[in-house]
């Protein structure tokens, strides 16, 4: 029973289903209740489930996550919203020092089923601290799962799976895709949370991306097809753990790989993918693994963000360089 909806609406529907299905699920964050969130992702949830389950918090990210940790220790499943990507850093200590380590510290006796929702990335013309891509900082931390949907269907199902996980999940939501619509089948059997998916078949080169860059890669593949180039597009969906087996299978077929993400290339997730695939596919590769991403510089003012963000031309340039080997 498929319904076409925007990515933001899909997350709202997923949260609604989780709140209906499990009384231990809570939604917390700045302005998530009465306002419904700055992007209206939580719109209507407080009205329907009450202020004790959809909770407007003070403007204190460290306190939001710290409170969620305490609630999880008492058996709840909190879903907390960090209003914008750049606001997560006051909570970074709680996430890295407490949330990620409690399971190991307790020798497996304590589980912390906390979902931290973070709208991330650029493309919305926002001011400073509202357009960052800090996923690699969290992927580097053992004990955290880090995922990012690229479409409404994945947003719906991956949120369900994240809430059901007994491990903490950092859920990065590509804010410039909030209004992109796609079919959502509420009766479907979803892919496993951390499995990559081929969203376009190809034979000449693999484009691997996640979150906001999947759409850019699909557009690049369509443009390349007009020139007779067959590009495979792989939606990674999860940054940690990362489905290296699916990347390897695609690269063994196409023999070339370009990794695309909004975050800076320097020490970005693409670096780990490039290293692993070079190790695994050394005798299959016909070109070095190339990376396309942001620059190693603070995110610029809104008027310059189109120059900063990886777009169609930069992806196609990397494709041309890879195919030229």
TrEMBL record:
Pfam families: Transket_pyr, Transketolase_C. Its cofactor is thiamine diphosphate. Keywords: Oxidoreductase, Thiamine pyrophosphate. It comes from the Bacteria. Coiled coil: none annotated. The keyword Oxidoreductase applies. Residues 5-180 form the Transketolase-like pyrimidine-binding domain. Signal peptide: none annotated. The keyword NADP does not apply. InterPro entries: THDP-binding, Transketo_C/PFOR_II, Transketolase-like_Pyr-bd, Transketolase_C. SUPFAM superfamilies: Thiamin diphosphate-binding fold (THDP-binding), TK C-terminal domain-like. This is Alpha-ketoacid dehydrogenase subunit beta. It comes from Streptomyces macrolidinus. The lineage of its organism: Bacteria, Bacillati, Actinomycetota, Actinomycetes, Kitasatosporales.
